[in-house]
Amino acid sequence: MADHLSRLENSNIKELDEVEINDSFSEEQFFAISDLEVPWFADIANFLAANIIPKGLTHQQKKRFINDVKNYFWDDPFLFRRCENQVIRRCVTRSETSKILEHCHSGPTGGHYSGTKTAHKILESGFYWPSLFKDANRYITSCDKFQRTGNISKRDKMPQNYMLLCEIFDVWGIDFMGPFPSSVENKYILVAVD
Fold first, then answer.
1. Taking Cα atoms as reference points, which of 43, 84, 78 lies closest to residue 61?
2. Per the database record, which ranges form the Integrase zinc-binding domain (predicted)?
3. Of 82, 101, 110, 187, which is least surrounded by CB within 10 A?
4. What residues contact residue 90 under an 8 Å CB cut-off, 6+ apart?
5. What is the spatial distance between Cα 136 and Cα 116, in angstroms, rounded to a whole number?
6. What Rg, from alpha-carbon coordinates, does the chain have?
7. Do residues 82 and 110 share a domain?
């Protein structure tokens, strides 16, 4: 295929031959990509995918790392964690957390609840990251609507109506039905309500 494509006739070939390719770089240095985020679970994913243990760990840290990795499994392209209640949740990167927090707190089904309740909604949605509860509490402190709402006071509560108290047999009823076809020699039903 490549040989065939290279032999196709191009009417603009003469114009391309006249343009020289500039091989010089305007900058002599290459800069590292700063926007590339390394997820918090990179070491875990590397261990599960390629059996690579992070360098620089002591013997105890290696044992703890291997013990912690038992709760995770890799299903390309996602990493999942089996939590204490045996529910499987997807591990998310730092860049995804802000959108998840916004949706579970301020979204149409959010409700502007407290940090703990927002964190539980995130867990119910099937997401996980290690600093979930801290991030949820930090997020609600920056939510203007939540801060203005505050706690429910007595003036927000609905008025309660008093129950009507009755003496025994003040309100009672009896219902008598039958005869029905015999069922274990019983033909009638008597219901008494106090």
1. 43
2. 93-149
3. 187
4. 78, 79, 80, 81, 126, 127, 128
5. 7
6. 34
7. no
Q: Cβ of 41: how many Cβ atoms within 10 Å?
A: 20
Residue range 147-170: mean pLDDT, rounded: 66
Residue 117 CA to residue 124 CA, distance in Å, equals 10
Give, in order, the Cα–Cα distances in Å from 4 to each of 9, 14, 15, 65: 10, 20, 22, 54
CB environment 83-116: b (16+ within 10 A), e (fewer): eeeeeebebbeeeebeebbeebbbeeebebbebe
The C-alpha atoms of residue 38 and residue 75 are separated, in whole angstroms, by 18
Residues 48 and 80 both lie in one domain: yes
Residue indicated by tokens 């995770």:
72
Whether 99 is in a domain gets the answer yes
**Residues paired with residue 79 on neighbouring β-strands, in sequence order:** 74
pTM score: 0.55
Domain count, the chain: 2
Q: Which amino acid is present at 32?
A: A
> Among 76, 91, 106, where does a domain finish?
91
Q: pLDDT digits over 50-74, tens only?
A: 888 999 999 999 999 999 999 999 8
Domain that holds residue 83: 37-91
Confirm if 192 and 173 have CB atoms less than 8 A apart.
yes
